[in-house]
Amino acid sequence: MGLSAVLPVNTLSFYLFGPRERAGMTPEAKHLEVILDTHVESVNLAEEMCVRVAEAVGFTEDECYRIGMSVREGVINAFHYGNQEKPDKKIHLAVDLTSEKIVIHVMDEGRGFRLEDVPDPLAEENLLSTSGRGIFLMRAFMDEFNVVPGRTGGAEIIMSKKIPPGCASNNGNHESPRSDATPK
To answer: Of 101, 117, 144, 167, which sits 20 to 30 A from 63 (CA to CA)?
Structure first.
């Protein structure tokens, strides 16, 4: 049974999001980590979780869309290319929130890959190919993007987005400034 069946999305942050010290993180930094089943439903769950965190921090609607799309692409790559859609493998998702940025990690249990081996989707010979488009979007939408060997043996995508000015000091305790936010 997948995590989504155990905890509804709106309670995941309540149970998992809190202070945690990790290498390079200050004590006031927050960390969220979940292990997702290799199922197509995990793509939507991962995207929704990260978008909710981004909204809580104060990212604009457009920035939340870009963060969500980047997470979606990363988890699709972990699901399809990394874990080869094998249900016995897991997708590891972690979100680190510091006063300066949101850092998202997506890790699979596959064989890994080298970023420099991914074809450029804008090259003339690759325009009709689907390979490399997700990485292109993640690079375009996020401030920092890298792929490293993961602790599970597969690839670990690490991407980050700087927190907008005026929101950084709140470190996730900020009510969304969006005009469509409903009053409590």
So the answer is: 117
- The C-alpha atoms of residue 156 and residue 118 are separated, in whole angstroms, by 15
Tokens of 131: 């390979």
What are the backbone dihedrals phi and psi of residue 32, each rounded to the nearest 5 degrees, phi first? -130, 130
Domains and CATH numbers, the chain: 14-170 (3.30.565.10)
* Contact in structure between 67 and 141 (CB atoms under 8 Å): yes
What does residue 96 show for φ and ψ, rounded to 5 degrees? -110, 130
- Counting every residue written for the chain, the total comes to 184
Structure-token pair, residue 29: 């930094």
What tens digit of pLDDT does each residue of 77-90 get?
999 999 999 999 99
Rounded Cα distance, 94 and 150, in Å: 12
